[in-house]
Amino acid sequence: MEYLIRQYGLEQGALEIEYIEEFFGEFARRKTSNEITGRLTEREHLIVMAVAALPGDPGTLMPVSYKVCHELFSQESDPRLADLAAQIEDVVDFNGRRVLYSWIGGTRIDWRGQGHFRALTEEQEAWAIAAGFDEVVVKTKNRYYEMRGTLANLHFNVVKYVPHPIENLESKVFLSKKLGPHVLDLHRSARTRLEDSGR
Ligand SMILES: CC(C)(COP(=O)(O)OP(=O)(O)OC[C@H]1O[C@@H](n2cnc3c(N)ncnc32)[C@H](O)[C@@H]1OP(=O)(O)O)[C@@H](O)C(=O)NCCC(=O)NCCS
Known about the structure:
alpha+beta
């Protein structure tokens, strides 16, 4: 299967994410486009989506899976990012290295299990390596079994577990992957990059 990947500019990408997250019934708190643009403006980032034809309408391509990552520094002024950096500083080396944070992503329910998220992950990794990033970090929770299983298959390694004081399902799991040419050797999805979309 050939996966179709589209990179989005910040403003259009933020709107598309707000729209696609409407299809993720499992998340009570979805990201708004303002939240996305607020975090990503003036920070190196990548917004990519896998697009596929609608059943019964092969002429219309729509986003079915998405992934957003951005650079993370050891010192951050935004309190949420400062907290994130502080939580991983003992397991991720920021010193002279570029760290990428894989922030949000998912696949629409009807398109899961078809390799779209792997294709996006490989696209993200190829971009990150070309951009000079050394490591990609991701955070999930104990209760996100699908995501944990997927990240294991994509060879992310657990680097930290932060227990929740009351509900273990809410405990945080931090995973990371060191980047380099060896990562590209393991890529296996056939991908076509469509023209960039939007600003
Ligand atoms: C997790 C999620 C993104 C996977 O997307 P997807 O498009 O179905 O993933 P893919 O089909 O590309 O699968 C990628 C790899 O993960 C594996 N995988 C996918 N779903 C899995 C699951 N539920 N359990 C275990 N492994 C899984 C696939 O077998 C594949 O491995 P392989 O390429 O080595 O065969 C999707 O299920 C999702 O959006 N879930 C809800 C989002 C979520 O839980 N977010 C948590 C917040 S962090």
